[in-house]
Amino acid sequence: MRVLFVTFAAASHLQNMVTMAWALHTAGHDVRVASQPDLTDTITGTGLTAVPVGETHDLAQQVQEINENLDQEQVMDAEKAGEAGLDMNELRPEKLTWEYVSKVFGTMTPFVFQNCSPDSMIDDLVGFSRFWEPDLVIWDTFTFGGAVAARACGAAHARLITGLDLMANMHARFVEMLGRPPAAERHDPLREWLTRCLERHGATFDEEVVTGQWTIDSTPPSMRLPVDLHYVPVRFVPYNGRSVVPEWLRERPSRKRVCFTLGLSYRDMWGGGARLGDILSAVAALDVEVVAALSEEQRKTMSDLPDNVRVVDFVPLNAVLPTCSAIIHHGGVKTFGTAVSHAVPQVIVPEGQWDTAHLAQRVQDSGAGLRVGDARNIDPKEFGRRVARLLDEPSFAQAARHLRRETLGLPAPNDIVPLLEELTAEHRTGSR
After folding, report:
1. The Erythromycin biosynthesis protein CIII-like N-terminal domain covers which part of the protein (predicted)?
2. Do 74 and 217 belong to one domain?
3. pLDDT at 173
4. Of 277, 236, 310, 322, residue with least CA distance to 23
């Protein structure tokens, strides 16, 4: 069959798709990946076939425009992001009022979802899909253009998610409460936008356009949200992009190794390089080897670090974590998933966006790590003590191994290909 993957132009979202795309490819299916032109080189760098659609996305410019149009303090503060309607990570039932939930969709639809799937991208996706006639479209949960294209050409379609399904959880709450306010106030911004997109291409809306006909989910079962949808569980398989194993990583460390990574844009939350240097020094004082993945800009703002801190621009997590006794990170879902894959205890300082805080709390609840609430206010020595607990108390390593066994019980991407074939045959309406 022909399978079209669709994501907006963000490398991290593409990386979530690569192992599933290759599983389908190696099973003999024709696989292509559609995104805006600025992701083309990244797609082809994975060995997959790219289909450029729409105009250049320029994610950095999109984020800047959001910041310019919304209160900057609310954008940067996790507690206030929900008040701004820019985040879906609120799970407390008492907070999920009609006013709150409707504001979230009223903000996320124009500022996020429509930016991820602009008209030019959707029109090109539909045009290509009607030409190529995919049997199955697998789309990133932020990129609704994939669902629109599937509906327009009669393909089956599924979401692919990593991490907690905050989108479906919030949408279920929204639909449940939609009938409560007076008829004049029952606005559904997401449905209204998607209806316009679909009608422009001769198709109609239903709720499957929001949540897919099924959802491919790599979240450990014990950590999933209780959302009533058709999920296809799959094991998380780490993918780091192009990478090389360095010389120093070809020998076992002489002492316990701790990996320190903050993602690509996590500097401000740590109060700048000087504070980051103090925290690294506190960890290094534990008589460990620290491998810190820092950008050149981050490194320039720090004073000299201890000799047992190895600073690298990039290191493939899938290569370094098997040698590590702990990892400190920001809560990114791929970092979390790779740590689970190698049974490495985690200290998570969540950046507050999307599901990072919830993942951090679930890791702590599982016993496989610790959550640090606010890196800007924590004392470096106290931070070092928490890392020491992770290294010295056997219960953390035991819980990390238990979490790994749980994920190993899930089918690998190759194993679910026959199920995807069956679901595609069941749901597609078009035929080549």
Report:
1. 22-263
2. yes
3. 93
4. 236
Residues of the chain scoring pLDDT < 70: 58-86, 263-275, 375-376, 431-432
State the DSSP string of 348-384: E---SSTTHHHHHHHHHHHTSEEE-S-TTTS-HHHHH
Q: For residue 59, give its domain range.
A: 2-235+411-427
Measured over the CA atoms of residue 251, residue 252, residue 258 and residue 261, the dihedral's sign is positive
- How far is it, in rounded angstroms, from Cα 104 to Cα 58? 24
Residue at 242 is within a domain: no
d(CA 122, CA 117): 6
pLDDT tens per residue, range 203-225: 999 999 999 999 999 999 999 99
What phi and psi, each to the nearest 5 degrees, are found at residue 152? -70, -25
CA dihedral 256, 261, 267, 268 (to 10 degrees): -80
The pTM of this model reads 0.91
In order of 1, 157, 250, 265, 270, the CA distances from 378 in angstroms are: 53, 45, 35, 20, 10
Q: In terms of C-beta distances under 8 Å and separation of at least 24 residues, what long-range contacts does 244-251 make, across chains too?
A: 244/316, 245/316, 245/319, 246/312, 246/315, 248/310, 249/315, 249/319, 249/320, 249/323
Tokens coding 302: 């720090």
Measured between alpha carbons, how far is 169 from 89 in angstroms, rounded to an integer?
9
Contact between 298 and 276 under an 8 Å Cβ cutoff? The reply is: yes
DSSP single-letter state for residue 110? I
33 close to 53: Cβ distance less than 8 angstroms: no
345 and 309 in one domain? Answer: yes
Task: Write out pLDDT tens, residues 86-131.
Answer: 678 889 988 899 999 999 999 999 999 999 999 999 999 999 999 9
In a domain, 275, yes or no: yes
Do 174 and 63 lie in one domain? The reply is yes
